[in-house]
Amino acid sequence: MKGTSGKDDRVVVQHKFNFWDFDRSGTVPIWTMAQHIQSLAYQAKIKTFFKSPLHGYPSTEVHVLRSQSWEIFPSYYKCFRPDSILTATIKMLNVGKTSFTVETEVSDTSAEVVVKNLSQYVNFCMDTRKTKPLPDWVRKRYAHLTSQPRPTTVQVFERQAFTTPFVHSVSVQPSHIDWYKHVFQHYYITYCFDCAALGARSGMYSTVKGNILKHKVRTFSVLYQREALEGDVLSVESWEDERHPGTLKFQVKKGSVDIVQMAIAFYTSSDFKKQESKL
Fold it and tell me: Which PANTHER family match (predicted)?
């Protein structure tokens, strides 16, 4: 990770891809991209957005990701190779009492935007495991953002009552745990994508079939509802959104407790070719 420029509410950083970032289709998987972007956003937060005015050091506040939504353009699937450089422009959009929203635009070497991300974070107390107000100095520094319209973030969706889900079971491994002692956010994306891969291979969906890597992701969103810990056994329920062809929805549960919701919308062949023709 290399920082290129920054100011109070905007920072530009870069990341160089390695061979191990790519899957067998030659693409950077969505969970790998999410992991890199969240890592870059973390660096932006501690080095720029939340540098304390009292001593100049990074704030010790803990910020937990509440939700994230992504839009992936067709050029994303062709522009990156090992040693390619991505440039991420990370910008603070809104600051509330206990949360803030960050927008990231990822561009390739030609400066074309290939990925957009909107992430909402909440200020978190590690002792109570609950949200808490942001420090006064943060709201003062970003006073111009406290009055900005709150961006539309990911909300809870209801499962279609008549739908029988495809279920995949996951055991949380020690390697899936982050420094907050719960599952690292990007692993939930792998849990759901693995579920989709198995469901597609089994013919569980009408539009997403066969090899999941042949289906290009257009958008995906994740809502974090509760935390999962090492050793937990999770069930990942998936079903097709009948109102939106090519969209799969997921509910990750620990017993009867909802842990994470996710939705993945895939390009149809015609839509992908139509979008490619505009490039």
Answer: ACYL-ACP THIOESTERASE
Sketch out the chain's domains with CATH numbers.
1-153 (3.10.129.10), 157-279 (3.10.129.10)
Specify the DSSP element, H or E, that contains 70. Answer: strand 62-72
Encoding tokens for residue 124? 């978190």
Cα distances (angstroms) measured from residue 213 to each of 15, 75, 162, 193, 268? 24, 16, 28, 10, 13
Per-residue tokens: 260? 């994470």
Task: At 204, list the tokens.
Answer: 């569980």
Helix axes 185-201, 30-44, angle to 10 degrees: 170
Q: Any idea how long the chain is?
A: 279
Per-residue pLDDT of the chain (279 residues; tens, 9 = 90+): 454 444 568 889 899 999 999 999 999 999 999 999 988 888 787 778 887 777 655 666 788 899 999 999 999 998 999 999 999 999 999 999 999 999 999 998 888 999 999 999 999 887 888 899 998 988 998 999 998 888 999 999 988 777 789 999 999 999 999 988 899 999 999 999 999 999 999 999 999 999 999 999 999 999 999 999 999 999 999 999 988 989 999 999 999 999 999 999 999 876 766 666 565
Q: 30 phi and psi, to 5 degrees?
A: -65, -35
Q: Is the Cβ–Cβ distance between 106 and 113 less than 8 Å?
A: yes
The SS3 call for residue 193 is helix
- Rounded to whole angstroms, how far apart are CA atoms 72 and 189? 15
CA angle centred on 85, ends 185 and 106, rounded to 5°? 55
Is 250 within 8 Å of 236 (Cβ atoms)? Answer: yes
Distance, in Å, from the CA atom of 244 to the CA atom of 171, rounded to the nearest integer, reads 30
